[in-house]
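Exercise 4. Each item below gives a protein and its sequence. For each, produce the structure-token representation.

Item: ATP-binding cassette domain-containing protein (Ruixingdingia sedimenti).
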Amino acid sequence: MTAPLLEIRDVARDYTLPRASLLSRPQVLRVLHGINLTLPAGQSLGIVGESGCGKSTLARCVMGLEAPQQGRVMLDGQDIYALGRRGLRGLRSRFQAIFQDPYGSLDPRQTVRRIVLEPLAALQPETPAADRESRLIEVLEAVGLSPAAADKYPHEFSGGQRQRIAIARALITRPALIVADEPVSALDVSVQAQVLNLMMDLQERFNLSYLFISHDLGVMRVITDRVAVMHLGVVVEEGPTNEVFDNPQHPYTRKLVDAVPKPFAGRRMRRPAPSPAPSAV
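Answer:
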């Protein structure tokens, strides 16, 4: 049996709180409690739950940004926190991120060319200049932007186009895993559908796996194969997306499903219509 691309094994994460007084001991808050999840290559796993449940903390642990106090994060069978700084740097090309704010995540002082190529320059500096340029054109066209966009700045694009730039930036190293933290929540509803459709097309084209963080069950129905429901730092329910949302077993999952408008609560949403020309976004 092929090993999963990503394995999260008994991961716990603590934060130290400020001292209540000069002589008091600092208190420790446990944000993640023994999380266990797996993600096969080419599939999408959603993490859903209300704000403060630990979704983004888990994403940072998976990205190698915050080491857990307990447990392991395995990518391609390797414990990313046992590799050391140099070993982790060598593995970073295998995973990239897309963030919530498509404007705040892009440096407004840099051209699209420099923004998109930055991960390649940092993680694969040996890449020849000609290959960098061909990769740049490839990822821009893959997300629906023309090569001419490379010489423009983020403020010259709409919100949906800026998120396409962020997706191109995530693709440039040819990763296997993309961690998407609320990537469409800042976009208009019509643009959300276009970006989700694009992400599904890219998943098929590049055999990507997504760890998709969101509080939106409608988005999860569109993009994920499986979903894990988090509450107060614990995974309370996990399984195929349709099964979890159509027949929730945990009271908290039922609460989430009941809060969704009824037309979307009990059935899988249709795949969004094909994206229009990028200028419409």
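Check: Residues 264-281 have pLDDT under 50 and may be disordered.
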